């Protein structure tokens, strides 16, 4: 079947309503466009769980800070449509800012997942996760999917969305999809294109450092502060400005305790014009 492209909320609701009347199960992939291998994997993850796949492409101004790259965020709609067609998506919702937020371009109502907002990227990028939760809540209300998938690369975002869905009793199942990496280990991201070729080589160090930390923890090293400090030094020496590198509880995202068994190592670091995030999970 061909991809239908809709820019109005009304058209999306009408199409999804018709599919739901045929008892189709609706799957949803929310994106900001500039689709890459990581996004394509989201579609492969959701396909077995639904009959129709809806994708949104919306660079959401609410989740960008004043000094961030909203204006420069890569917009590649024609190429994205080709990719969606090749992966067999059924409906693309590509609204304007006005369609989503009216002429003010703002939303007076905001969704704040308070505890997670105060950690890591939430603390450093003020308002970011409020923008994410607000737009995802709104997209869920527009698309009314049965199931949606988000990438594990954005680990904190995934936690925010799961918490919001649970707290607000939104009737959607949330799936996650493992991080897709380039051969070097660098996690696929639209922001990798801000890296020069030399920086791209350096950027692969993030994943090596994460894997070494995981290996050390698996081998019994429980001195997380020391592991974090050594990893920070390695990144700084290679030219990164790390925002944080932390061993956390995989469920709560709070700093890991000696008896925490399910861990996630979260990192955010700037390199050149790019801010890169990554993570690995560890079970001990
Ligand atoms: O991960 C993203 O691309 C965005 O944060 C999302 C979930 C599409 C919300 O704008």
Notes on the protein architecture:
The chain has 284 residues and is an alpha/beta fold. It folds into 2 domains: 4-177, HUPs (Rossmann fold, 3-Layer(aba) Sandwich), CATH 3.40.50.620; 190-283, Pantoate--beta-alanine Ligase, Chain: A,domain 2. It has 11 helices and 9 strands. It has helices spanning 9-21, 37-46, 77-87, 97-101, 114-117, 120-124, 128-143, 155-167, 197-203, 205-218, 224-237; strands spanning 4-6, 26-31, 52-57, 91-93, 147-151, 173-177, 241-249, 262-271, 274-283. The strands form 2 sheets. A 6-stranded parallel beta sheet has the order 1-4-3-2-5-6, with helices on both faces. It has a 3-stranded antiparallel beta sheet with strand order 7-8-9. Helix 7 crosses helix 8 and helix 10 (205-218) runs antiparallel to helix 11. Pantoate binds next to strand 2 and helix 7.
